[in-house]
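User: Please predict the structure of the protein below. I'd like the answer in structure-token form so I can feed it into my own downstream comparison script.

Assistant: Understood. Taking the following sequence of 410 residues as input:
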Amino acid sequence: MPRVLLLLPTTTYRTKAFVDAALKLRVDVVAASEQPSTLEKQNPEELLTLEFSNPEVAARQAEEYAANYPIDAIIPVDEDTAVVAALVAEVLNLEHNPVEATITAKNKYHMREVLNSHGMKVPSFVLMSLDQDPGTLADRIDYPCVVKPVFLSTSRGVMRANNQIELEAALKRLDRIVSEPKIARRGGTLARKALVERFIPGFEVAVEGLITAGQFRPLAIFDKPDRLDGPFFEETIYVTPSRLERAVLRKVVETTAQATRAMGLIKGPVHAELRVNEAGAWIIEVAARAIGGLCSRALKFDGDVSLEEVIIRNAIGENTSSIQRESLASGVMMIPIPRAGVLREVLGLAAAKNVPCVEDIVISAHITQKIEPPPEGATYLGFIFSRADTPDQVEQALRESHSRLEFVID
């Protein structure tokens, strides 16, 4: 029976989904986290502590573990653990993405450099220090532009600026965000860097895919029907299948595949985000991981197979080329945070769940939790899931369900 090492930060939503998938597939799981479990000594085969913040140390720790308990595959769940996974795979001589490719996927600036060098459509961009006077780069910045940290995700710290005054304000706000001690430690030397790139207008899509032996295959393309034009970029609704024309979708897939090759990714899940306009498909991001949060619940494949099952089967070398997404349309709403404060109560949950075509609602924020919308915040209030015959019905159900919810925030 194959043994899979799952790299699961304590903050991830993905643990249960991956463990359930592994149990269904009868695959042995080693759950690795950055914090030790009280049960680790009693169960050393299935629990492991790795220093995710220092990938080289984590690789040595995994190598020591594998000397007693051989590992057949490694699966990370976010950008940080993707780098750890690549280093561990390297020392264990397992097929995985190259270390440099995962570093590129994690660093938005390096990604831009690589994709630009391969002639791909990416926004014009400038890397600057947060300690630098933005006026010194005035002749290199096109407005409107987008300011973003090079290492964070979930739209944290991402802001639009329409002129130099707004740019200076956005950079100061980003400075405050990345100066928070936990974020500063996570970013290291990258924490003081900002990527300033030209804003690309258009319709945004997300692509979920899988790479096997260097070949990219799309699993789903999500429409993002809410326009993401700023000033902040909090994502809300994902709906699949996409309603874009077939020729446009082909271009989206071709562009994503080209990006993965340019970055050197050769195996595992990919989550990409693109903008589509009259000039074509523009790569915004390509992550060497699956879709985040609980959003993977919006995807099912023939035979009631989950996305996590597909990822595990790919990791252990099984052929997944025949696996196709279900025939129903589906979607998820990441419930946005309307304002900062303390969550006191959630009203209307029963009525929201009673909307036709709504499958489930998960409120992931807990009562008394301090919450904050982007660009400072990096979480959601919860998730609404829908399945229906058409994408339009899915979107309508998600919006109607959300309208019945009320969040009491002090």
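That's the full token string. The mean pLDDT is 94.
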